[in-house]
Amino acid sequence: MSVLTRDAQGRAGGRSAPAGAAAARRRGWWTTRRRDQLAGLLFVAPQLVGSVLFVLIPLGLVFWYSLHEWNVLAGTFEFIGTDNYRSMAQDPNLPSVLRVTGLFSVGLVVFNLSLALLLAVLLNQRLRGTIVFRTLFFSPVVVSLVAWTIVWGFLLQDNGGVNGTLGAVGVDGPNWLRGDWTALLSVIVVQVVKNVGLNMVLFLAALQGVPAELYEAARVEGANAWTRFRRITVPLISPTILLTSIITVVGSLQVFAQIAVLTQGGPGTSTTVLVYYLYQRAFQFHQFGYGATLSVLLFLIVLVLTVVQWRMRRRWVFHEQ
Amino acid sequence: MKIRLTAAVALTALLGLTACGGDSAESDGPVTLRMTTWSANEAHLKLFNEIAAEYTAANPDVAGITFDPIPFENYTTTLTTQIAGGNPPDLAWVLENSAPDFVSSGALVPLTDTLKNTEGYAYDELAPAATKLWQADGELYAYPFSTSPFGVFVNTDLLSAADTESPAELIAAGRWSWQNALAAASTVQAKTGKAGLVVRDFDYKGWDFLSTVWTGWGAQAWSEDGKTCGFNSPEMVEAMTALHRGIFVDKALPGPGTTADFFAGEAGMTITQISRASLLTDQKFDWDLVPLPAGPKGEYAVIGQGGMGVLKQGRNAETAADFLAYLTNPTNSAKLAQFFPPPRTSLLTAETLAKTNPLLSPEQLQQVVIDGIADGVVKPSHTGQAELNQAVRAGLDPLWQPNADVRGVLDGVCSSINPLLAK
Known about the structure:
The structure holds 2 protein chains of 2 kinds. Chain A is mainly alpha-helical. Helices cover 75% and strands 2% of the residues of chain A. In chain A, strand 1 and strand 2 form a beta hairpin. In chain A, helix 14 (274-284) runs antiparallel to helix 15. Chain A is flat and about 70 Å long. In chain B, strands 1, 2, 3, 6, 7, 8, 9, 10 and 11 form a 9-stranded mixed sheet that branches. In chain B, 41% of the residues lie in helices and 15% in strands. Chains A and B meet through helix 3 and helix 14 of A and helix 1, helix 3, helix 4 and helix 16 of B.
């Protein structure tokens, strides 16, 4: 306290000096650097506010809810510590749900990436009509997901369009959405056809960035098409392969509308993936606390998979440091 | 710097949110009530709005009452999500299959005293069969505004095209049984290519609608006390065997993944609630409505119900209960009876119902509605219904294959729902 007083008295001697110094200090604080920083922050503010409000806060709340038993109807919200996590460890349905989720993701990623790459390579040729085909394969990406799925639901019915077409060539098609493995396969195919165009465009862009002289040189050396693809194309587009595989894996773990519209998790539980299961638990069975616990599990799975893929990039992605 | 700024932004945003979500709806000024329904039918909403307008005119403390239709398929899910999100309606329709959950959880305001103390309410004329599901410890938690029996609608044009005896003829001859109904349905399918008999809303998922079939065999999903699984009882095995045969051998019912809408003329017969008669207003085919066929255990009836309750978590529970008493008083019940069969015994006469249900004959009303409500078994319901629903649906899925082992599948259903029934 005394120090402050002395300081104030000491400065009281020269009247004009403090005002000038304050202005200088203010000017000194308001540097170009700070102004740029503020401008930058203002630019990202809308996104930042959105992320905080709709991502970070809900994410925190999900962790919080997972420590509670929340009975919506009775209006009770009780802290139960890690009980939900313990029930999750003993949940008899969870192994089957995780198995279906794994099968779905692997099936989707393998189908989607190989088809996208194949289409991209085919459509990267300088041939007539490629633009038409590119548009054709990309157009499902912009169609409303639910509308797309509902139409496929009609097509895949026992007496629907798919079996009608098969019947015309003498094939007796199965009841797609009612068989154990055909239901899962149908959901995968519907999802692949919907989104393959996006990965295809990304691959196309990457393919067009591969220098033509590398192929010429390889051809001069006598490399055949497969060797050129394996030794030149794949390494040079590997950053895109990494990107698309991360997007597709994460996307495959979040699939919901297709399941809700086409199969509701059935027949049996053959298409009950983790997201659908947590929806059932939280919104249909009114177990919001347990549903939140399952979302934490989903979050951890996505996090681990992404980190693993990101770490693996050093090993197989070209150009990465 | 970055962290502090993020925190500041979050805090400001939260403050902003709190300000927006302020206490504007507290009960100082006139209040607005909201009721969720699963009917978006214009005629229904018009009637509700008329009754609401009369109520607000007489009660200046209520500024308005809105009716908020939610699609039927996701009704309960949407309603509970609204409650979880802190936006509960003041009043809500409750489906019979979630009645035990709503009644036992304490979500609803007890109504008995409010209704009994309302002048001219005549509480005692509510039929006990209708209110049973909506009570706990002698206290009524929701008013069963609709007690609608299941009947069989018949497309008589299609049946005569198939040259088969009509249900009316079978009834006259005393031969309206499941066996003959399935045979007629099978003939319709074989001769016209249209579907024979459709259990509406079942679609190989809504298994509780099959109670309209298995009750004829004396089967039950679970025992009266809700503790014992009934799916592997001999009666159920017999009923499901008959149904399975009807679907996969005789093609009397459309198979899984095949849709046929009776009201669009695509099926010979359909089992549904009589409240669906309104869909027949502009129909181009001749139709009939008959009671459910007799099963091996004789004649029976099944009813579906809808209740109306006041949510405890709503902001104006007391006012809402008062409005509910007004909406369901004898005068307004009579108006609602044109769409929803009422629980009031004074209104359950063929003459009263005929005035408001011009599409149905007095015989149909007596046979299907009045007798149905008196002797009807309510569709199965249980606490934790949503989870049970899901477990039974998944358990029954293997049954809908041509070569299913009926007994084995039904044993499987019981082993998967027994832990849930024991809860």
